[in-house]
């Protein structure tokens, strides 16, 4: 439908990534990811720059820290771009460091995808260090709370007590998704299945309470007071799209047809939402809509496309086309991304989660899915 236009933008984004100096880890990783999947190559100088950044990084985030870089190096090794000797040298010291981080995250009760146990778990799954993965599953099991047949997890990053986060970026759907990955890799399958089942029961209760609404799941819930922070947005990070991903991953484990139907209804329900009701950021001054993966049009179109591949509903195809059209229209005008929303400041950058390289990955996945296979597992979107 958009073949020539997408090919043009894929080449344009490649040029931008090649020209970008990669002033920080966020930009350098974005450049690297896009070059790896689009060209199946990354310049040696950029690899060396990333390694230097990893050694100097004062933080270890799975998004923009040393863990993100070492994970990317493993992808380069899988693609035969760096050698066995190279990856062994890089991981020799870092694995022990990441094991220490695992213990620290468990002590802080921090399961977060970017700063806690789940990001570490995705890395250890990638390198097949299953003993570490099983430790993480055990920690997640110990952190659970139970109420009747329901299982949930309290967010210990926020200052407010008793908060359950329901976003894919930082909350319960990410736990579901990670546990499903562990189950399919044979890591503590019985524990994973038990936790997934209890978590689904909890989410079903919320679903039944609000299933007639346009936006069904809240972003956060105070389990003590019952107060809900409504989502009212379409995004990867928060809202029903992320919950749907978690539910589908759970279905692949439990094979519960009622759960499949619930996931199907959830994704069809939000497929009707247009930009003005989506919560996607738009700047009238800059004549710009956010096209990023995290909370922009490209991420939304990508998730609808993934679910279209699963369910084959015309409504999901139409939703994907709608959000893809908005993305391409903005690329024609020039894409900028929110930097300071309070002051309506938008900038160009090559970040993966919130920048142009991520938009490129969505276009690549749509146009040439065989080239982009499983690129999105770092964001737990590898569902179809």
UniProtKB/TrEMBL annotation:
One of the GO BP terms on file: peptide modification
A Pfam family annotated for this UniProt entry: LANC_like
Residues that bind Zn(2+): 237, 294-295
GO CC terms: plasma membrane
Listed InterPro entries: LANC-like (IPR007822)
A GO term for molecular function: metal ion binding
Keyword Metal-binding: yes
The entry's keywords: Metal-binding, Zinc
PANTHER family: LANC-LIKE PROTEIN, LANC-LIKE PROTEIN 3
Protein name: Lanthionine synthetase C-like protein
């Amino acid at each position: 439908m958009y073949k020539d236009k997408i090919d043009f933008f894929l080449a344009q984004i490649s040029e931008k990534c090649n020209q970008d100096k990669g002033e920080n880890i966020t930009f350098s990783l974005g450049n690297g990811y896009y070059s790896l999947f689009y060209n199946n190559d990354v310049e040696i100088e950029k690899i060396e720059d990333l390694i230097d950044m990893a050694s100097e990084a004062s933080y270890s985030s799975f998004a923009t820290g040393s863990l993100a870089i070492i994970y990317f190096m493993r992808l380069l090794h899988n693609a035969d771009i760096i050698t066995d000797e190279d990856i062994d040298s890089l991981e020799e010291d870092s694995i022990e460091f990441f094991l220490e981080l695992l213990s620290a995250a468990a002590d802080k009760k921090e399961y977060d995808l970017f700063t806690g146990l789940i990001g570490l778990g995705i890395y250890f799954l990638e390198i097949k260090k299953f003993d570490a993965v099983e430790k993480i599953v055990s920690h997640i099991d110990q952190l659970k709370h139970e109420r009747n047949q329901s299982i949930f997890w309290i967010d210990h990053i926020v200052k407010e007590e008793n908060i359950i986060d329901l976003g894919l970026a930082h909350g319960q759907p990410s736990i579901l998704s990670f546990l499903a990955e562990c189950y399919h890799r044979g890591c503590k399958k019985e524990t994973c299945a038990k936790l997934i089942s209890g978590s689904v029961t909890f989410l079903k209760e919320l679903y039944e309470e609000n299933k007639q609404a346009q936006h069904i799941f809240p972003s956060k819930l105070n389990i003590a007071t019952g107060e809900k922070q409504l989502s009212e947005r379409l995004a990867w990070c928060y809202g029903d799209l992320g919950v749907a991903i978690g539910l589908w991953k759970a279905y692949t484990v439990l094979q519960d047809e009622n759960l499949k139907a619930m996931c199907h209804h959830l994704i069809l329900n939000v497929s009707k939402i247009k930009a003005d009701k989506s919560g996607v950021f738009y700047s009238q001054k800059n004549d710009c809509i956010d096209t990023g993966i995290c909370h922009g049009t490209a991420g939304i179109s990508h998730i609808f496309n993934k679910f279209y591949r699963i369910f084959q509903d015309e409504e999901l195809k139409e939703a994907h086309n709608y959000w893809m059209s908005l993305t391409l229209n903005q690329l024609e005008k020039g894409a900028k991304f929110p930097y300071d929303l309070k002051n309506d400041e938008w900038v160009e950058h090559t970040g993966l989660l919130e920048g142009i390289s991520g938009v490129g990955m969505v276009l690549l996945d749509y146009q040439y899915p065989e080239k982009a296979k499983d690129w999105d597992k770092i964001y737990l979107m590898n569902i179809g």
